[in-house]
Specification:
The chain contains nine helices and no strands. With 259 residues, it is mainly alpha-helical.
Length: 259
């Protein structure tokens, strides 16, 4: 069981690392069309994972409340959205001002970009940890396949995110090695956050429905704030929408058929 959990926690980090490594194979920024497709696909995966892996289990675990079983899901979901909203307002956003010049401003932008994405990755790591903690506890509403599908979904979302960090950093003058390393560093917090969540499982379990929906709210915020604008950016195209459909369908199949 410990090996299964370890693999599950490392899968999202692997997505970030692989995405960051694209800087070694591409000369310029990620192609706009490719970025639209990846963002749309990741958005579909994240929305489906939030519903089937997080919100539905949250309501099922609170089924003893009868018609009020929705309360933990609603409260946690809203808190997750608000948490990311506050995070976006208090921490520099990853889309930074390009008008500043000079070595100092470049270093500041590098630090702020990595910090912003790193903090956004913490709730995602917690989400995976929460599901694996629930599965390890023997909860009937959380399966190994459900936890794995969420980890895979986050890894898919992290792949373009890693590239979105490393490639602009290289274009600002950093070496490919350093740019890749910064991207990888931004993803290390995910397995760490997941492991801490599992270690604190005895404290988490009594309020697990709220934590599940909190993670869902945090991920939906990322979808609405980051991925959807990116898939619709620039010249009108339906590629992002089609990719969203495919991502949503894939995650729905993984979670329902395998779960």
């Amino acid at each position: 069981m410990n090996l299964i959990i370890a693999k599950g926690l490392l899968i999202p980090f692997l997505g970030t690392a692989l995405g960051s490594a694209l800087v070694f194979f591409m000369k310029k920024e990620l192609n706009g069309t490719v970025q639209k497709i990846l963002s749309g696909f990741a958005a579909g995966v994240m929305v489906a994972a939030s519903v089937w892996s997080l919100l539905i289990p949250s309501m099922e675990m609170a089924s003893d409340r009868g018609k009020l079983a929705f309360i933990p899901a609603v409260v946690g979901f809203c808190l997750g959205m608000i948490f990311l909203l506050i995070l976006d307002k208090t921490v520099p956003h990853m889309h930074l001002d390009e008008t500043q010049e000079g070595p100092k401003s470049k270093m500041q932008k590098t630090t702020m970009m990595v910090l912003a994405v790193t903090l956004h990755n913490i709730p995602e790591g917690m989400a995976v940890g929460i599901l694996y903690a629930g599965w390890a506890s023997g909860s009937a509403t959380i399966t190994e396949a459900g936890a794995l599908s969420l980890a895979l979904g986050i890894a898919i979302q992290n792949f373009p995110e890693g590239a979105i960090i490393s490639m602009p950093l290289h274009s600002r003058g950093l070496s490919k090695g350093k740019s890749c390393w910064y991207g990888i560093l931004s993803g290390i917090v995910e397995p760490v956050a997941g492991l801490l969540t599992i270690l604190l499982a005895s404290l988490v379990m009594p309020v697990l429905p709220y934590f599940l929906s909190f993670a869902a709210g945090a991920m939906i915020y990322v979808v609405v704030e980051e991925l959807v604008p990116e898939m619709a950016e620039g010249e009108h195209s339906n590629l992002g929408t089609i990719a969203f459909m495919l991502g949503f369908a894939l995650m729905m199949v993984l979670d329902v058929a395998l779960g």
